[in-house]
Amino acid sequence: MTSLTDRTALITGAGSGIGAATATALAAAGARTALIGRRADRLAQVAAATGAAHASADITDRESATAAVTGLRDQVGRFDLVVANAGAMLPAAFDTADAADWERMVSTNITGLLTTARATIDDLSAAAESGPADLILIGSIGAHLVLPGYSVYNATKAAVAHLTNHLRSEFGPRGVRVRLIEPGMVESELASGVTDRDAAAALQQYAVENPPIPASSIADAVVWSASLPAEVNVASMIVLPTVQG
Length: 245
Prior knowledge:
Blueprint: E1 8-12, H1 17-28, E2 32-37, H2 40-50, E3 53-56, H3 62-76, E4 81-84, H4 99-127, E5 134-138, H5 151-171, E6 177-183, H6 197-209, H7 215-226, E7 236-239
Parallel strand pairs: 1-2, 1-4, 2-3, 4-5, 5-6, 6-7
Helix pairs in contact: 1-2, 1-7, 3-4, 4-5
């Protein structure tokens, strides 16, 4: 295992859940951290607790997100560890779902991830010339499941999985470790945004039957995999509650 004390990390969706837990874990491991999130107040709280630089931005707005990355780079230096975590989950039956919810999931889960990767890939490629460089994409076990009401959400996460493989084929030869982490049921605020009553009730019942693991479990996976020697990449990880799989 290698130390993270000389690493500089960027985490998106860092105001809560997996993003906040990852910011905490990376800071505890000694990395310099920079955070991006939509909610300025929540982001400021995480930044204050971790000593991180931070910038409020909507990851679906390419210009705003790219400007945030540039500003944070000016503060903390070149990034060699990027965790693209921002996500949205808005399940509903396909024939009654609000199309605006589809657009939000696609723009957050796919376009936002693309923006994050594009804004940082030059940093990662340069960092890989002299040490480890990690692009970690947070997907979902949903990419592998067929569930009523989750057609669009699961499709976006399947796209993340396929995109990760392609990015690995392009940047692995340049020394960048492109990694996919797919969580199962995890304590987060994703469920709080579900507005469809039937989907919300089904998700609540599923969580009773499959108690979620803490977000820190995913953060631990990030820290562990980033701490491996530079020549070793754990290409993908599925992290579930034991009762879920």
